[in-house]
UniProtKB/TrEMBL annotation:
Domain Cas12f1-like TNB: residue ranges: 358-425
Keywords: DNA recombination, DNA-binding, Transposition
GO BP terms, alphabetized: DNA recombination; transposition
InterPro entries assigned to the protein according to its UniProt record, in alphabetical order: Cas12f1-like_TNB (IPR010095), Transposase (IPR001959)
GO terms of molecular function: DNA binding
Taxonomic lineage of the native organism: Bacteria, Pseudomonadati, Pseudomonadota, Gammaproteobacteria, Aeromonadales
Name of protein: Transposase, IS605 OrfB family, central region
Pfam families from the UniProt entry: Cas12f1-like_TNB, OrfB_IS605
Sequence similarity: In the C-terminal section; belongs to the transposase 35 family.
C-alpha cells in the first residue's frame, strides 16, 4: 500500500533559488509542449480532413496501382520528449542545472492533460452538451503562468537519498539525529521531521506554498509496516451513519455532533479582507492589460498566500484527524454520495461546504477505511436522508434547509434534523453478514476522549423522543 508524508524542508535562500529555478524549468518544458501541440493539433486537423477525402476517393475506386492513404497521427508526449532532449544540450543548457525530473516528468504531466482533454471532448459529444455550456468543459492544455507563491517539481525515487546527519557531511556531523535529503545538483537539505515509514520511496514532490518549501513523499509500505505505524483499529462490529451538515461539520448517528475547527471562521474573514486590499493594488486585471505588476501587489499577495496556507493546514489537519478517528472506531460507515460540485453551485451552502472541506474528508475516509479493511458505503445522492423519518419512514416533502428540527407528521417524532439524517444513513448499511451494533457506552467514551485528545470540539445531541 502507498502512504504519503509531507515534511517541511529547512530552506535557506540558496535552496529557494534552486527551487524557483526548478519550477521555472518545469514551466518552460510544459509551455514548450503546449506551443508545439497547438501548432501540431491544427496541422493534424487539416491532415485528417485531407485523409477522409482521400479515403473516400480511394474506396470509390480502389485501383491496384494507388496506395491506400495513411491515417495521420498526432505526436505523443513521448515524441515531444525525444525532440526536446535532442536539442536540450544545445538550446536549453539551463535545464541541466536542476534535477533531470524537473523537465522530464513534465512530459508525462503534459501527456495526462492532453489525454483528459480528448476524453472530455468525447464525453461532451456523447452527452450532447451545447457548445458553449460550462458543463464538462474540455480544457485544451494551457500555458502555465509564473507564480511567486506556488510551484512544484518532482524527483523520482532513484534520485532520492535520505541520510541521518552524521554520514552526509563533515559540517553537519554534530547534528547527528537530524535527517537530510539529497537534492540533485544541489546538496543536502534538512528535513524538519523524520520520515515515519520504512519502505520504498516512489518519488518526492517538492513544492512551495507561500514562504515554505515542502517535500511530499510517496512511500510503498508493507501491511506489517502499516500496522506498526498506525493505531490498531477497534474491532467491535459497530456502524454509524455520517451526515455532513452545515450547522456542525459532521453528525454521527450515535448523537455526536462534531464541530468544525474554530480558528477557521476568523481566518476566513481576515482572508476576505486581505483579498479586497490586494485587489486595490496596481496589477494587470485582464489578459493584454499593460498595467505593471507593482511591488506592493507582490508583497501583499505574499501575505494572502501565507494566510491561505494556514487555513488550508487547519482544514487538512481536521480532515485527517477526524477521518482517522472514525475509521478506527467504526467497522462500517455510511455517508451520502456527495455531489460537491452541485452543492457548491448553491451559494449559501458553498461557503459552509468549502469551509470544512467535505471533499477532503470523503477522500480521506475512502482510503483509510480501505486500508483498514473496513467498509464505507455511499448512499445514492437522491436518497432523501433528511426528509425521511428515521422512526416510521414517512416522507416529509416540505422540509426546508431552515428547519433545524425534524417533526414527523405521521408518528410525532421530534429530532434534530442532522441526527435524523445520520440515523437514516446508518440504516442504509446493507449486505453485512453479521448483525451490526451501536456503540456501547464504554466505546462511546473512548471515541469522545479520542476526539478530545485531538482537539476536536463535540457536543452530544439528544436522540429525541421515541
Ligand atoms: Zn415518523
Amino acid at each position: 500500500m502507498i502512504v504519503g508524508q509531507v515534511i517541511e524542508l529547512k530552506a535557506n535562500n540558496k535552496f529557494f533559488t534552486y527551487c524557483r529555478k526548478a519550477f521555472g524549468v518545469r514551466r518552460f518544458a510544459y509551455n514548450w509542449c503546449v506551443a508545439k501541440f497547438k501548432k501540431d493539433y491544427v496541422a493534424h486537423l487539416a491532415a485528417m480532413d485531407r485523409y477522409t477525402r482521400e479515403l473516400a476517393e480511394y474506396q470509390k475506386s480502389p485501383l491496384q496501382s494507388t496506395v491506400a492513404p495513411v491515417k495521420p497521427k498526432l505526436p505523443t508526449w513521448q515524441d515531444y520528449k525525444k525532440e526536446f532532449n535532442a536539442i536540450r544540450l544545445e538550446k536549453y543548457p539551463f535545464t541541466y542545472e536542476v534535477t533531470k525530473y524537473a523537465s522530464q516528468q513534465t512530459f508525462v504531466n503534459f501527456g495526462t492533460s492532453v489525454k483528459s482533454y480528448f476524453e472530455n471532448v468525447k464525453k461532451r459529444k456523447k452527452t450532447k452538451v451545447k457548445k458553449n455550456s460550462k458543463k464538462r468543459k474540455a480544457f485544451f492544455p494551457k500555458f502555465k503562468k509564473k507564480s511567486y507563491q506556488h510551484g512544484s517539481f518532482y524527483i523520482g525515487g532513484d534520485q532520492v537519498k535520505l541520510v541521518t546527519g552524521k554520514s552526509c557531511s563533515k559540517k553537519l556531523e554534530n547534528q547527528s539525529s537530524k535527517q537530510y535529503m539529497n537534492i540533485p545538483n544541489f546538496g543536502y537539505v534538512q528535513l524538519k521531521e523524520k520520515l515515519r515509514f520504512n519502505g520504498h520511496i516512489n518519488g518526492v514532490t517538492i513544492s512551495q506554498r507561500a514562504d515554505r518549501i515542502y517535500a511530499s513523499f510517496s512511500i510503498e509500505i508493507t501491511e506489517e509496516e502499516y500496522c506498526r505505524t498506525h493505531k490498531a483499529a477497534v474491532q467491535n462490529n459497530t456502524a454509524a451513519g455520517i451526515d455532513l451538515g452545515l450547522k456542525s461539520a459532521l453528525m454521527l448517528s450515535d448523537g455526536i455532533s462534531i464541530e468544525s475547527p474554530k480558528p477557521l471562521k476568523a481566518k476566513l474573514r481576515r482572508l476576505a479582507r486581505l483579498q479586497r486590499q490586494l485587489n486595490r493594488k496596481q496589477h494587470p486585471r485582464a489578459k493584454g492589460d499593460k498595467t505593471k505588476l507593482s511591488r506592493n501587489y507582490i508583497k501583499h499577495s505574499r501575505k494572502v498566500s501565507k494566510l491561505y496556507l494556514s487555513i488550508s493546514n487547519i482544514r487538512k489537519d481536521f480532515s485527517q484527524k477526524i477521518t482517522s478517528i472514525l475509521a478506527n472506531h467504526y467497522e462500517y460507515l455510511c455517508m451520502e454520495d456527495l455531489n460537491v460540485k452541485g452543492m457548491m453551485s448553491n451559494h449559501k451552502l458553498a461557503r459552509a461546504i468549502s469551509d470544512v472541506g467535505f471533499y477532503n474528508i470523503k477522500n480521506n475516509l475512502i482510503y483509510k477505511m480501505e486500508y483498514k479493511h473496513r467498509k464505507l458505503q455511499e448512499v445514492d445522492r437522491f436518497y432523501a436522508s433528511s426528509k425521511t423519518c428515521s422512526k416510521c419512514g414517512a416522507l416529509k416533502k416540505d422540509l426546508t434547509l431552515r428547519d433545524r428540527i425534524y417533526e414527523c407528521p405521521e408518528c410525532g417524532l421530534t429530532i434534530d434534523r442532522d441526527l435524523n439524517a445520520a440515523i437514516n444513513l446508518r440504516q442504509q448499511i446493507k449486505n453485512v453478514g453479521e448483525a451490526i451494533s451501536e456503540l456501547m457506552p464504554v466505546e462511546l467514551t473512548a471515541l469522545l476522549s479520542d476526539l478530545a485528545i485531538n482537539g476536536i470540539a463535540t457536543s452530544s445531541v439528544e436522540a429525541g423522543i421515541w
